[in-house]
Write a structure and sequence with these properties.
Blueprint (H helix, E strand, L loop, with lengths): L1 E4 L5 H9 L21 E5 L16 H9 L6 H9 L22 H4 L4 H5 L14 H21 L2 H17 L29 H11 L9 H13 L1 H10 L7 H17 L3 H13 L11 E6 L7 E5 L6 H19 L8 H17 L31 E3 L2 E3 L14 H10 L5 H10 L21 H5 L4
Antiparallel strand pairs: 1-2, 3-4, 5-6
Helix pairs in contact: 6-7, 6-8, 7-8, 7-9, 8-11, 10-11, 11-12, 11-13, 13-14, 14-16, 15-16
């Protein structure tokens, strides 16, 4: 690996530039012979790698699938599988997709009524009631395709695989990506008309994982239909994801925004065997300038656990914002690391387990006492509902998005999200204590997925079913 350098124009350099002309005789100097001072080391830069794509190799490898199949008659896999196949609103071979031409995730106050903004964007002809939130079609269909893909892999249900493929191909045939301003629009020409559209990218890694699960059904991975799905993702979504993580280098958009695009890029790259995309996503995680980087803006401090567990805790970018988003980040970082594991890159262990320390911090603050159980409503809890006090979470004050975060936020504390057995499973299989992620996973085990956690985006921004696919015995 190499070191990157921060090039800073210091006051001394400016002063030298202003007086140097008095030292040059006869209008000439041998500048090439001057000694160049060694710049101060700033942060580590990692080299791109060449990865092996032994499909399936995204969230689930062939070894993962075989492990789960071998344990379906045991707990907790048995209950987890029952949770999947009884989720009949989604894991249903009769499920049909509802694709839309352009995907939108827009503020209802500005875009819900078909007002003048649609004219400014040159989109009057595209408007219909409800278009501003039609991404809900997408998150439901992605959840269904993924769950049907799991069923295919775990019990060989060809009807489930065919149904998942039809969902994906229907979207590829109809959808033209995000709703953008018209080329000749007064505003937003060829651009997103609301930055919230970038959050639609949460669903891209879900669609890609569904495609990865069914690519081996009846030769679909070598078919024109598969190619159409890959081309659709690559053409209409990858460019916006790449653009977003490149521009998100200020203190404006939060960590979860970066993670939405990073998981999308990584998943499209794996699906299409594209080394450049995979490296783009992974290197952004390692040394990027945005909050998706675990070494820079994504983690604001690493601490020894004050409760004496001997483990490390890492304060994340959204810890002072609210726990709804903080737990979302934990789910997405887990998915990102697990997808990288599928191609041989262990990001869980990267930089002394920094990602695990991040998840541990989130889990410790949000895990409830056993008496509360796992079916509470977020917001119904009191300070005595939680296993650990706020004072047991070290916190570095920071400024972000125009606000000063003086302490960990209690807003949304106890938010329920699936995915914790990704973290616990890794810790179990690698002999890592993982005290807090294991407690969180145990609280919700077996977890479900889309359809089990409400009808809003919070229930669908992560795939879930981590107990089924990632639980590992100690």
């Amino acid at each position: 690996m190499k070191k990157a350098f921060s090039i800073i124009l210091s006051a001394a350099a400016v002063a030298f530039g202003a007086t140097a002309c008095s030292e040059i005789e006869d209008g000439w100097t041998d500048i090439d012979s001057w000694e160049i001072p060694e710049p101060e080391l700033d942060y580590t830069i990692y080299e791109p790698k060449t990865y092996s794509f032994n499909h399936p190799c995204m969230l689930h490898t062939r070894a993962d699938i075989d492990y789960t199949k071998a344990h379906l008659g045991q707990q907790p896999w048995s209950d987890a599988y029952t949770k999947l196949i009884t989720n009949t609103g989604f894991c249903n071979v009769a499920y049909t997709a509802s694709p839309v031409k352009y995907l939108a995730r827009l503020d209802a106050a500005n875009w819900g009524g078909g007002g003048g903004r649609w004219d400014d964007a040159g989109l009057r002809d595209e408007y219909y009631p409800g278009i501003h939130n039609n991404y809900t079609n997408f998150f439901r269909d992605c959840a269904a395709a993924y769950q049907l893909g799991l069923k295919w892999q775990l019990d060989g249900d060809g009807q489930a695989a065919a149904a998942a493929i039809k969902i994906l191909e229907d979207w590829a045939a109809v959808n033209k990506g995000l709703l953008l301003g018209a080329p000749d629009a007064k505003k937003w020409a060829n651009d997103v008309i609301d930055s919230n559209e970038y959050l639609i990218m949460f669903q891209i890694h879900q669609a890609a994982n569904a495609a990865e699960l069914v690519r081996d059904y009846d030769g679909w991975g070598n078919s024109a239909g598969f190619k159409s799905v890959v081309d659709w993702m690559t053409t209409y979504f990858y460019p916006f994801c790449s653009r977003f993580i490149a521009m998100n280098n200020t203190d404006h958009w939060w960590m979860n925004w970066d993670l939405a695009s990073m998981t999308a890029i990584l998943s499209i790259g794996i699906l299409s065997d594209n080394q450049d995309m995979v490296n783009e996503a992974i290197l952004h995680f390692k040394h990027g300038e945005g909050p998706g980087c675990i070494m820079r803006k994504g983690v604001l401090g690493v601490f020894e656990d004050p409760d004496g567990s001997g483990e490390m805790l890492a304060q994340g970018n959204e810890s002072g914002r609210d726990q709804g988003h903080n737990t979302l980040c934990a789910s997405m970082v887990g998915a990102f690391c697990q997808m990288a594991m599928g191609i041989g890159e262990d990001l869980f262990a990267f930089e002394n387990g920094r990602a695990i320390a991040f998840a541990q911090y989130v889990a410790k603050y949000n895990v409830v006492i056993p008496e509360v159980g796992d079916s509470y409503e977020t917001g119904s809890l009191s300070s005595t509902s939680f296993r650990y006090s706020e004072s047991s979470l070290p916190f570095n004050e920071y400024t972000y998005n125009g606000g000063i975060m003086t302490g960990i936020s209690g807003a949304g504390r106890g938010t329920i999200r699936p995915g914790w057995d990704i973290w616990a499973g890794y810790c179990n299989s690698h002999n890592i204590p993982g005290k807090y992620v294991k407690e969180m996973a145990e609280q919700f085990r077996p977890d479900g997925g889309g359809g089990h956690y409400g009808s809003s985006s919070g229930g669908f921004d992560q795939l879930g079913f981590s107990t089924l696919m990632h639980y590992r015995e100690n």
